[in-house]
Write a structure and sequence with these properties.
The protein has 79 residues and is α+β, with helices and mostly antiparallel strands. Helices cover 23% and strands 41% of the residues. The protein has one domain.
Length: 79
C-alpha cells in the first residue's frame, strides 16, 4: 500500500517490516530514510499511519514487542 502523508510517500512494498502487533493485523515499518509508520489491515482495506520515532517506540512498548527487536531499531538508554 502507498500513501502520501505530509508530502512524504509511505510504501509497504519498499519499507522494512520491523514487527507485528499481538493480533498480527498491524505491522510497524521503517522507510529507507528512517521514517516510521504502521499499516493496519482492516476487513477489505488497509490503513497507514505515520509515526514519529517516539510514537513508534511507544507503539512497541504498548504492543509488548520483545526487547531485542526494540533495542535493535531504537537507541535505548541504560537505566
Amino acid at each position: 500500500m502507498k500513501k502520501i502523508i505530509d508530502g512524504k510517500l509511505y510504501d509497504t512494498e519498499t519499507a522494512a517490516a520491523i514487527t507485528c502487533n499481538k493480533h498480527k493485523d498491524e505491522t510497524l515499518y521503517k522507510t529507507q530514510k528512517g521514517a516510521w509508520f504502521t499499516y493496519l489491515q482492516e476487513k477489505d482495506k488497509g490503513r497507514l499511519k505515520a509515526f514519529t520515532p517516539q510514537e513508534a517506540l511507544d507503539w512497541c512498548e504498548i504492543q509488548g514487542i520483545d526487547t531485542d527487536t526494540v533495542c535493535k531499531h531504537f537507541d535505548i538508554e541504560d537505566a
